[in-house]
């Protein structure tokens, strides 16, 4: 009843049994194992793979042909057939017999439809994972090394310096600074004793400031210093040897040395006196004639303006008891939105609140920013989500310059501008479909009629994303713009590069029809000048000849 391993009569089951593992294995079993391992499964040839793909394609086509025959049989079936048709068959028959509508009736408004895919213009740079949830995130612009040096080249050590930084702050006040590629540059504590509720950075490259505010109204400004990183002698020696004996380049890794120091601490006096739980709602850094200011709005309708050193510059009241929804910086002034009104705040020696009134506009403004290309133009969104463009006659009067298509965006909206385009974050579908969208609108259509042949598409692209906790847009010169989104749980920051260029039409003929007359007059002047010069040069020679003859 047993088997002989030496004779090769053992069955596979007996060999696989754990009870037989102690038996000596014969050469027949060994030869069988070696023979099976020595013959690996051969992959089919390329011709065989192509034939298999063609056969699969043929089977797919045959299945489609059968489906089409069934649909044709349903369409040609007699309605008086004794066998009742199912509802599905009736619907299919009606759809096949019905007349196709015209494309003009099916297609929507050409202005509200986007013409391109966002993947053609938006490229993911990095995804930065966080260990702890992040509450707020901003993009901090840095100076361009080439622009600062004013030369055609820069030192090699400065080539890798980033042109921007990603600033993330947690609720407990911990700030993390990253490069756009995702490298950690710095982390520090702001020193807040209460949860952080606001974060802001300056929109320009003059100073690297980070302003944070907590729930108690305390505001702390930290100043960053960014320099090229210089390795010590020990670090250079360690890179020459490397962990595995391989030499490591000194230009690998982050090349910026980022340091921080506390710059100023401030608190609005009204919040310090108020015991009813007043809270800050918005904060912005702005400048006026080279001086830096920080403005904060609260839920009581007040705005406090500080200098960058922490001194109180002014306290203004917009609407008593109406929260200040947003503040955005502009050259020499601030744009505010409160309730259904909006306007400007001057940042001169005597700040003043100005309320805007626009002709033929009676809607409610929910968001407003100044166009980054034209300072006399304001982009605003009304209560229905329609985006308007206003031209400023003064800081209290304006007129409607353009209205983007209705229902292309919906409230709530957040606006940002880059060169030639407007980016709008549409959060209207966060609660219903758990998604949001970023819409790129073409600003070159402003001021052009719908029948203008030179007018381009109104909406360039729309990008659907998961609902972000916050987002930030940074306009850059001579390179792609940056856009960053913070996930809803605060555990992930995605940095995107927006590669969009504004079409600049070629310069037309400046002279136009005056080209020939101008050239004719110029030629006459040249000939006349040459004639007069020759006449003047010939008179002395004639006088000298007469003298010699005498």
Count of helices?
Answer: 9
Task: For the record, give the distance between the C-alpha atoms at the N and C termini, rounded to a whole number.
Answer: 157 Å
Structural class: alpha+beta
| Helix percentage | 10-25%
- In what order do the strands lie side by side in the largest sheet? 18-22-21-20-19
Q: List how many beta strands DSSP finds.
A: 29
Question: What radius of gyration results from the CA coordinates?
Answer: 37 Å
Major sheet attributes: 5 strands, mixed
- Percent strand equals 25-35%
Q: Low-confidence spans: pLDDT under 50, at least 5 residues?
A: 1-39, 147-152, 542-550
Shape: globular
Give the integer mean of the pLDDT values.
80
Structural commentary:
This protein has 550 residues and is an alpha+beta fold. It is 21% helix and 34% strand. The chain has helices at 12-16, 27-38, 46-76, 87-97, 103-106, 145-149, 233-241, 269-273, 515-549, and strands at 122-129, 136-141, 164-169, 174-178, 184-189, 196-200, 209-214, 219-228, 256-266, 280-288, 291-298, 302-307, 312-317, 324-330, 333-338, 341-346, 353-355, 357-359, 365-370, 377-382, 387-392, 397-403, 413-418, 421-426, 436-442, 459-465, 470-474, 481-486, 492-498. A five-stranded mixed beta sheet has the order 18-22-21-20-19, with no helix packed on it. Strands 1-29-28-27 form a four-stranded antiparallel beta sheet, with no helix packed on it. The longest helix has 35 residues, at 515-549. Residues 1-39, 147-152 and 542-550 have low confidence and may be disordered.
